[in-house]
Amino acid sequence: MLQNPLLSIVLPTWNAAAHLERTLAAIRESGLGVDYEILVADGGSTDGTHAIAKSFGAEILPAPAAMQTVGMPPGRGSQLRAGAHAARGQWLFFLHADSAPTPQWAAAVDAFMGAPENTGKAAAFRFALASGAPSARRLEKIVAWRCRLFGLPYGDQGLLLSRALYQEMGGYGSLPIMEDVEFVRRLGRARLCLLAQPLATSAERYEQDGYWRRPFRNLLCLALYFLGVPPRQLRRLYG
Fold first, then answer.
1. Where are the domains of the chain?
2. 38/25 Cα distance (integer angstroms)
3. 99 burial class (0-12, 13-18, 19+ CB within 10 angstroms)?
4. CB 3.0 to 4.6 Å from 34: which of 6, 18, 25, 110, for a disulfide?
């Protein structure tokens, strides 16, 4: 265990064995030029998530949600908070377990952290799906448009920021859903950088639910959230 890593990578997990190995392998093989630690904030996995995390030397943090609905995964908000609390790095990178870094990722991370002016900024990566389907390319363009127009990346685009800025912002809220949207809105567009390098997110959810149906449901949840519907009620709609 590194005592003073420059970077802490926080992954919230819940039965993530199907994707976690790919993501951790991509981190290990990326060639990061700094010392880093990996913290897996787990919400009570019953599959092979813990074994995979341990095989890559990651630290596992039990981080179940305070108000988890029976039969549903825990909200990422409380997991992200737990990971950030335990992190030892000067920089924090929050990453979903099914969003694997691409070969360009390490250089982008090193460059962002190496610029002194970025201690007061946060960076999100370009949304990309690990699929060759034309529908995946269309969805990527829609997400890129949303990010340019509204400055609103989601958690599957990762978020890199200094510990100082994270603490200044008060950290992630312990929300069952929309924790990424809520935090980025508090950050504001002036402190957010959208990087050109992609993260390769699994397309499994879109292949199962449909490339139109799932984004429409996500957009509906977002609209209802902006209209003031409590996140706990949105949770069941999101699934």
1. 7-126+153-202
2. 12
3. buried
4. 6
What the block records as the tokens of 127 is 């949304």
Q: What's residue 239's pLDDT?
A: 65
- Interval 101-159: pLDDT, tens: 999 999 999 999 999 999 999 999 999 999 999 999 999 999 999 999 999 999 999 99
For residue 69, give the 3-state DSSP assignment: coil
Q: What is the mean pLDDT of residues 20-30?
A: 97
- For residue 111, count other CB atoms closer than 10 A to its CB: 14
Put the strands of the sheet holding 192-201 in their side by side order: 59-62, 36-42, 7-13, 91-94, 159-162, 122-129, 192-201, 99-101
Q: What is the C-alpha to C-alpha distance for residues 3 and 40, in angstroms, rounded to an integer?
A: 17
The topology (CATH level 3) of 7-126+153-202 is: Spore Coat Polysaccharide Biosynthesis Protein SpsA; Chain A (3.90.550)
CA distance 159 to 85: 16
Tell me the C-alpha distance between 125 and 116, whole Å: 19
What percent of the chain stands above pLDDT 70?
94
